[in-house]
Design brief:
Shape: globular
Oligomer: single chain
Number of helices: 63
Radius of gyration: 43 Å
Helix content: 40-55%
Number of strands: 39
Amino acid sequence: MIVHTESGRKARGGELRAMYVEGEEEVTCPRTKQKVKKRKVVRGGAIRKAAAEKGREINKKREVDMKAVEKLLELTQPETGGQPTPSEGTERLKEEVLTWAACEKAIRRFKKGKAVGSDLLDGYLLRIATEDIQRDYWRLLVEIVETEAYPREWNDWIAMLAMKPGEDPKELERRRDLWVQPQSLKGLMRMLLPEYDRACARVVPGSQCGFTAGKNAPAQTLTARLHAEECMIERKMCVRGYIDLGTYFMSVVHEVQWKVEQWAGVPPDVTAVMRALREGLGEELPSLQGRYETGYGLSDRFPIEQGLGQGCLLSPARSKLMLAVMQRTVSKLCRGFDFTAAGESVPQLVYADDGLFLSNDIATMQLALECAWLVTKICGNSLQVKKKKKSAWSATYWENNEERDVEGYEMRMPDGMPIPQLKGDESYKYLGTELRTGWANGEGQTEMRERCVADCKRVIWIIGNLPHLTGEQIRRNMALALSGIIGYYGRSTVITWEDCQSIEQVRASALNAKGYSVGIPRLQIYDVKERGGMGMEHAYTYAAAALIDQVDRALSAVEGEPARVAVESSLAHTLRRLGCRSDNPLEWKPSWDWERELSDELMIEAYLKAKWRCGVETVTTAGWEESKKGPLRPEAWRTTESRKRVLGPLLFETRSHGWNNQGLACDFARNLAKHGIATWSDVSEWGTGEVLTWPQMKRVYGLKDNTTEHSEYKRLAEQLERPEWAQLRQYWKWAAIEERAHGQKTERRAPDRVRKVKAARKAPTCYGGGTEEDEHGWEYLCEWEGEQSDSWVWHDKMPHTWERELMHAQGARRQAASFREWLEHRRRLGRSGPEAAQADRALETCDGKSNAPSWSDVLDRFIEYSREVNGVCTSAPNMTEHTFEEGRTRTDIRVEGKARTLYLGGKKPAQDSGTHLGSREDGDNRVIKLEGTPGLDTNATWEEEIPEQNKITKDAVRKMMERQERERQEGSLGADETLFPEGAPQRHINWKKEDYELFVGHGHGASAIRVGELQEDPLTRFLLRYDEFETGGELTDGNGKRIKMGKDSEPLRSGKGRALNVKVAQTCLALHVSHQFTHFAATDGGKDHEDKMAEDGKYVPNPRVAYGVFEGPTRFGKSVPGDAQVKDPNGIGPCEEGEIRTAFGAGMWGGKLPNMWEPIDAEMYAILAYLRKMASASDAQSRRCLVLCDCKPALQQIENAHRKGMPEGLRDWERGGLLEAIAYYRSKLEAVVFMWVPAHVGIACNAYADAVATAHLGDNDTEDASKVVRDAVRTRPCMYTVRREAAENAEKREIVDRRTYGHMCKSAHEWVCEQYRKTVRPGSHTAGVAGRLWSEVAVASLKHRWDNKMRLPDENGGKDRRATFDDVGDHNVTTKTILGARVRQQVGVPHGAHHRRILEGEKKRGMRGPATRSAFWGCRACKAARDEATKEAREARRRRGELTDWDDWKQEDSEPPQASLAHILSGSCAGNKEEARHFMRKLDKHTARATARVEREAPDSKDTATFLRRARAASLKAKGSRFGALAEEEYDKIAPVIACTLPALTDSIPERKRRELAGEVTSELQVVGKAASIAIQTWVRNNDKTKARAEEREKNIGWIKRLFTAWRVSHTERTERRAERKEDGEDDSEEDEPVEIQLSDVTMHPKGTPAPASSVEARVFEERVDLSNNMTCRQMIGVGVRNVVLARGELDRLEGPGYAARRTELRRKAKEAARTRDRQAAASQDEAEENDATEEEMTRERTTRVGRPRGGMKVAARSGERLRREIGRGRLPRVGDG
């Protein structure tokens, strides 16, 4: 609402209060007063009945030819579709679909504030209800479906009639009816939705992007743009057809929908439920009825006999099934646009019911539109045509390198309905994006780009002007707005860096207006808060990220999606044109200046530029290595070494390509590279190796003289002849001679010639060949003599010698150009035969003239016609539009129904749960702390629905024993057979009671280490413990790494640790009994933030990441029969300790991971590494593993990915690559189960894994984890890497396993900051602190004190209160002060760092601009306060005659104090002296406290303490000085404290202690910042009193300059006329007479109030105007009031150096009379002017430091204002005008 108010929008009521009905009525024309007839309009209460009648007419049932529908479905029958085996009744629904888990999920989707249907139930009430009520609702739904007792309210819908833009609100048919379902029904619809989604995955082609997870609309618009680009590059025709189905959702015929659902394989029981809810069940349930919402209440009920219901949850999925029929028909019968590199054609792009057809020629587009029209006619829909907004087409072609529209062709449907053509600058809005007719001279994106930029500017300015927002809220809202706008349009429209800079200019202005930033340096706005910035995201971050993410989406799409074909083709084509000859095109990056060469007008080049700007590079995955199809497949790019020797070195790259380039490369020649010139062989003569001459290049490549190609090749040839290339040139010549001896020369093939004309057809007139009577041209299908395939050639491009053959082809070999032409031709040829009858019947059906239309016959004829058209079509075959199920990667993720594979345990009260809240005495109010505990508890709703016999519980051993005994008694199990694992772990593990005994009779695992039987089972061996290791001993793993137990040593020996080990063993045993695992492992990952000493003696963060795996000890010793203890390998003595240490060490392994990884990444990778090891074994398919891990988030993500059932879509997940790799290796094993255990509480296996991970933190070599992940990813061809500085200061590239869009935003943001960082000095936005900042303080200083619920802690320790707008305002003021201190320039304070930069610029340019004038006037508040304080004293001295000269003022004004932060805060300004002193006291006190804390907690952080001490010393110096003034260098010591930008701590202290210290120091510095803000705001208020006059002066300075320019010109002319009169002897004494101007003619304004500005725009005339009226200079600027003096230095520049002496003489002569004149002028002024005037303005003798009378500038400013008004009115000023 606030945004709408700020943007000037008003809520408009869209209620239906008047509507058209049949008939006409007479009304009186308000203009002519005559009676006229207009459409009849109904208003008032009668509208309810009229609306119901109209609704009955709109929603009445349409008759369709079901025979044609069945034939159409048979034609498009999907291979993976078909009807499943029918199920009896509703048993399947009850057991598999309408489950409690599905109902609970549906209930969670209910949202607050949604419209309530006819049942008057708000679904949000169910969401917040108790579980018992929710389960009652679920049982009620199941009972309703089971008994078919559907409530009548479910078939009573209400429609809200929404307005469409640009439509007549009284026309009901043009409104959008949004139907509101009963919310009690929505729960059932949500449970049925997965059934329709599965059907869509099986039958909907990949060209449909609407209502589909993982797809979006920009995928279609991006494909359309790439289509236009390829047409421009290869000079093809760009033909498009747009279709829109009118009121599609409500036009679907029920009978057709039921057939389509059967065709798509929707379960019959689901269709039966939907059919009952649409057609009713007789008297028990009426058919669906609806009511319209009008301005006078609900209309009467009317039947809804067709339609899906716009607003029904199932409508999107069900509509896709209907549209799939059209998509499959078009794809099967019509050819599309041929993407050259892909070798496939894309026929269509569909999003919901909006379709876009692509084609190579007009005839194929005619066929596609006719096909869509026919399908809609058969299915009962309608193809909507409304001017050029709905269905339309466009076509362009290239001639003489100029794109032109196709002229002279009218495209009509078989019924004669014309389809409008888009031409010229017209565009079509497709999915919100304006698409031009073709390339449009590179302006195809301009319109959309300008619209996007304008929208961003508008919303940024609105947000910046919203009241009561903090800086963080402004940042978030701006980020949300920009990401929404650019994040959508930027995916298919390139938003350039320049566009984003213009957007950011508005942001800077908005922040300046708010007072947060002066805008300079811009780095402050965008740098992260940890580095002293505001953390705002530049618009380019979203533009770059959106484009990269969209291209990556297309590359990762499943097979059968048009976007993937288009992007792969365009990427391959672009890389070839840029000279790429790499074996791996996706990883290629050129060595030439890509920043300058790549264009922002081409989508793929813009993508490459954005990607490389972000600092990311591409690495391929196993998905690319295994790809066998597409233009980017490996075999299409890889070149053998022998072939590389033949091709020669690369011309434009230093990269080795089978040759040692010696680091040499030529300048990139774009125009040569696009012709395929990239290697030495391309520019060398075969057999000799000599560089080709320009004539040879023209003959070989078809180049032309006097072009850029000529100059580029000349430069290339010169570079190849340079001396440094001599050795490489000689090697190349030897290789060429050798190739001549063994190879064969390949000659360039000459152009083919036409052999014969095979067919002719009508075409647009621009093709040529038509006569004056014809309204069409001709094109011909030609067969060529050489290898060129058949193609269609325009008449104008055929040789003249073929004229007779062409005339013959037009008659004898004529091919129909449209379906109607084909039918008419068949009717003429067949005459009275069966073919003529069939054609005649089809024509009558199409025209609507048949009494018994037979659309099935029309379909048969159309299929014949399409075969003939495709028989002469020269486009490549259509791409196979795979469905999602057909196109996805076949990574088999076995989900065993409802079998559990994750056990997260439960929760129990912690041991310290009795803690009371605060000091309350009420024992009931206690903090009940819960802690996790391992176990078999259920954690998801679906787990509760597992049948009891299949659940694994803690008494699983007992159940298994009972089952074993029962089967032995039944005889199905032998006496020697067992159901337990072979090692009989149930005999050794304590599973009956909970105590400290792990192994029965052997205590905990350490005491049972030598028991031989415990090594027989993998679980008991895994649970063994080694006391020597746990108490400080060392082990060595298989790689020689020394491992030692760390902080877990003490918990392992505690009672709690022993109890937990027993709990873990019992849980593992229960799972082991059920699954009979073959392998066990505990995994762990960690990150250590240990600091590292740098060369300068400071500590810097050095995070280290590693992982560890513990699989239990390997078998050790030898078991001797009859002896429970294991022996040595000889079976004689006891097993040696060394062998035990070796066994335990062999079960441990790990590695170091990239330092940029997070702990959860390490946890996941540990699991991945273990599963990868298991999957590499030869018996992997029979391995069953139980993995124990202490990271719940990692296990939950792994389980969610597993339950997803397929790896597609994991790209959009955080750590999607790791999850896919885990799923890949998991699929190779028989079973994998995960179990969570708490960390660092004494669980032995987890502690061992943690010790391994800790040991590997110190490894020197980092494991190549990126390659491990990439080798298992198959759903996308590439991943992205970034460069990170490793601990050993060696740069490495690591994969970024995050969401592409989010990470690209971060990378682009870094690039943006780097661009701004290049233009400023270090410390420019951190108050001069150039090194690393104390980031915790910098961030916390800008954070508000209230929480997310706007609650503030009471300062007196009382109850928390709610934050108010005053609190927000105080926080914002302090934040602005802190931000201003960081850049040494506060918004509202005129003088500072930014002012000095402008001032220096004005001095360099030799001009006196606003900065120079502002510096001259100095601190206005200070001067006003001094004037007020000394006014009476000066007057008294003047009366006594003691004040004879004003030398003190001269001395003071010679260097006026500047209004800088140093001046304001030091106390030297008279405008805020008390507040500044208060600030100094706070600065002294709180810096002392902060210094003491830092010195105590971080004694080694010398720089931090030094900055604080310097600030305090500066405050003491200011307090001790006489005037309290601070020099700028002294203020620079205070600024970091106000700005909260201190150097980073260098002490290696714990993280928690570091945060606490940062919080304490921040609190102290915030007090200082608040005191500074009070002082600054006081000064600003005092300064505002005199600010108006300064603004008036600046506003009129331009007019004053014009005034004196006019006077100077007229003065020169007057001097010339005097000279002429003197020569003629004439008297000119009258010119010297003074001109008297009455005081009443002068407009006076009270001091401090601006003169009214003229609203009339001034006109500048070419003619010169004499404004002087022969006035002298003194007369002109005096204008009847006191002596008005111009701005300082102005007259000196106009009159020359001699004027200063004359002015001194005039002042001396007028000294006595000046006092009298001044008093008279002062007496005539207004009382307010008199009271406000200073002594300086009232006294004539008071002069400036150059001797000029003071106060003149103010009167001159008012004179300039009057002059501006007069010129604005269009008249010349007269003498006496002010």
